[in-house]
Amino acid sequence: MPAQLPDQVRIREVGPRDGFQNEPEVIATADKLRLIGMLADAGLRRIEVTSFVRADVIPQLADAAEVLAGLEPREGVAYSVLIPNRKGLENALPLIERFQEANFFLSASETHNRKNVNRSVEESLAELEGTISAAAGAGLRCEGVISTSFGCPYEGEVEPGRVLEIARALTGFGCEEIGFGDTTGMANPRQVGEFFGRAGEQLGGVELTAHFHNTRGQGLANALAALEAGVTSFESSFGELGGCPVPPGATGNIATEDLVSMLEEMHIDTGIDLGRLLEASRSAQEVLGRPLGAHTLVAGPVDWRPASRPR
To answer: Active-site residue among 142, 152, 175, 244?
Structure first.
């Protein structure tokens, strides 16, 4: 019997943070704000806009405070900020009136976590406990993001039980949402379906979010497997921007326009205007001076026309 699919899903657009941070040329703050506005105009109601990381580590995000200060408040739009540590939270809190959600991250595998943040998983959890608690206490909705949830480029297989153990710890710290990241595109649909089936059983009352990369061309197939397992929350990046900056060859997130196109063709409501989303991606291409990888950006939306009657 076919799986029961949802009638609607929630999508968090992560391009302005996850996507832009990998671009070699610094993008002007005004261009970032204009593109974020276009994404909101397209109907995206959850947008990750920046991160308070060290400017010497990711120069692209050195204007985090300026981006938040310049955001146009939108009714029904939740802006989110990626928070790397307690210092990042301290830098973000003076601007708390400008955003509604805070995202916190660590890796499920020891090697990737050390290469990414120079800490063990346990050390990251120890810091996140107080940081997440403080953010939740300040009124922010908190998401915990677990990178390499479906495989590690350095260690290979990641035990699902370990991923869910980390997820339970994050919910205990105050996270209302847990994002599971396929950071380097190692997941396959069967694995995804089995994992989210198990996660749904063990993490009741928490929003489960799927974050796939299209490194090996399986991103949308994995999204479908997650849908069939009951997932109704996704993260994606317009234009297929992004990718993990740690291992070589880790290309972009699944493209928001490709995800929206697939879902809408399946009669699953996203609340997003695909035409306006494509306009935002075309504008991003102009800013970056290169073509982006989204398939729908090249092919355009599916054009269904009434079949003509035979003469």
So the answer is: 244
